[in-house]
Structure formats: structure tokens, C-alpha cells
Amino acid sequence: MENTIYIALSRQMELRRQMGVISHNLANMNTPAYKSEKMVFVEYLSKAKTGFDRLENGSGDGRYAFVRAGGQARNLSEGPMNNTGNVLDVGISGEGYFVVETEQGKRYTRHGRFQLNQNSELTNSQGDVVQSIGGGSITIPVEATRISIATDGTVANGDETIGQIALVTFDDQQKLKREPNNLYTTDQAEKPVEKSNIIQGMLEQSNVNAIIEMTQMINIHRSHDSVKRMIDDEHKRIERTVNRLGRPSQGN
Fold first, then answer.
1. What is the pTM of this model?
2. Any idea where the domains of the chain sit in the sequence?
3. Quick check: helix, strand or coil at residue 42?
4. Residue 23: in which H helix or E strand, if any?
5. What is the per-residue pLDDT for 39?
6. Is 156 exposed, middle or buried (0-12, 13-18, 19+ CB in 10 A)?
7. DSSP per-residue string spanning 67-123
8. b/e per residue 158-175 (b: at least 16 CB within 10 A)
9. 205/211 Cα distance (integer angstroms)
10. Are the C-beta atoms of 146 and 158 separated by less than 8 Å?
11. Torsion over CA of 222, 178, 128 and 77, rounded to 10 degrees?
């Protein structure tokens, strides 16, 4: 009895966590380079107590099959590219992350909407300085009129090379910790990227699939309703049992 209610309540909490992840995905479906996430579940078996075999889903062995949340996984697939026409916008085709220097230290991002600060340094939308290969900023002269960014990240003004945008990756991208403003942090060592291209005038879009997310949201609502009914039924059954036990015995 207690085991059944405990499992049902745990399932409710997991469904709410899953709903939170989906809601966050949908809220960021228009955020450039946003990577969707999903809950990862682990299946386990729980032995049914005597009298509760009616919940065993016909297995005949008196056990229930349940799942518990095992964490979150990030969808690393590339989002579609959008042509912005802005010479300082860049998208990454393939794996890799840009490196920016923040007040908290190095951070990583795939969001390539860049601009210039008052020192003519290349920065992201939050003013964090974009790092070049070998470290340091990329300063574009005020008089520059023909800015180009090659597929290897080389920034030039006409025939004059200005710098090269750093692009890095990591052994385990799932371990990158998401932070606000589409930034990531990690303790892993940076690795050079081998098979990626930087595309000027383009921005990678979110890889969130709204149809899939909405379908999952509907399924979660249904599962939540089903678990709630199970809890309500169990409470009613307990109440009936207590009432029967509490009645005085009838003598002959």
C-alpha cells in the first residue's frame, strides 16, 4: 500500500520535471543555436506486496515495471541555418564552440551573433570578447570596409588578415554545463575542431522541434492524469478498508 503510493508520487514528480524540461525547450525554440534537452529514464522492477497484484500489468510474477529519472541529455544535432546578411553574424556548420571571455572566465557558445564594442573588438551580444586562436581579442579597424570571415574563422579586411576566430570542442559535450545567455562552462580541456566550417552572414537556429515537444507535453498530461487517478483510487480503497475495520463486530 505505502509502496504503491510512494511509487505513484515519485512518478508524479518525474513527470513534472519532464514537463519543466519541455517547457524550457519550447521557450527557447527561437533562441539561436539553442540545443534542446530531454529527460533520461532508467527502468527498474519493484516487487508487489500481497494483495496488490492487480497492478502488475498481467506479468503474473507480482512485480511492477517502473522508471526513474536518470538525468538530462542534450540534443547535439545542428539546427537549421538562417541567412541574416549581417557580415558579423557567423554560424558553425559541424561541431564546435566559439570561445568568449566573460567576467567569470572563459565560456563557450554556438551563438554567433557578433558585434563590435567601443574598442572595435569582436564581442557577443552580452559584450563578452570573442577569443582568437591562441587567445586574445580580434580588433577590427574602424576604417575597415570589406570585412570577410573565412570558413576557418580567419577575419580579414580585404586582403589584410586581422585575426582568426577560435573554434574548440570537448571529449564529452554532454558534460558542458548550460548557463544563461546561451553560454556553456566546463572543466574539460579544449580540443581543436577538425571538420567544421564557419559560415559568414548566417546564424544557426534552435534545434527544438515544436511538434515533437507539444506531442510529448500531451503525453505527459495524460500520464499525469493516469497517475493521479491511481493515487485517488488507492486513497479510496484505504478509506474503505479503514471504515470496515473500524465497524464494531455484530454479535448473534
1. 0.77
2. 2-76+208-246, 81-204
3. strand
4. helix 2-27
5. 84
6. middle
7. EEEEEEEE--PPPPEEE---TTBEEEESS-EEEEEETTEEEEE---B-EE-TT-BEE
8. eeeebbbbbbbbbeebee
9. 16
10. yes
11. -70
Specify the pairing of strand 63-74 against strand 37-47: antiparallel
Cell of 191: 580540443
Residues of the chain predicted below pLDDT 50: 1-2, 48-60, 252
The angle, 0 to 180 degrees and rounded to 10, between the axes of the packed helices 210-246 and 2-27 is 160
Residue range 112-139, pLDDT digits in tens: 999 999 999 999 999 999 999 989 999 9
Transcribe 190-247 into DSSP letters: PEE-SS-EEEETEEEPP---HHHHHHHHHHHHHHHHHHHHHHHHHHHHHHHHHHHHHS
The three cell numbers locating residue 180:
544563461
Q: pLDDT for 221-247, tens place per residue?
A: 887 777 777 767 766 776 777 777 766
**Which cell numbers in the block locate residue 216?**
510529448
d(CA 24, CA 36) in angstroms, rounded, equals: 8
State the Cα–Cα distance between residues 162 and 88, nearest whole angstrom. 14
The residue written with cell numbers 567576467 in the block is: 103
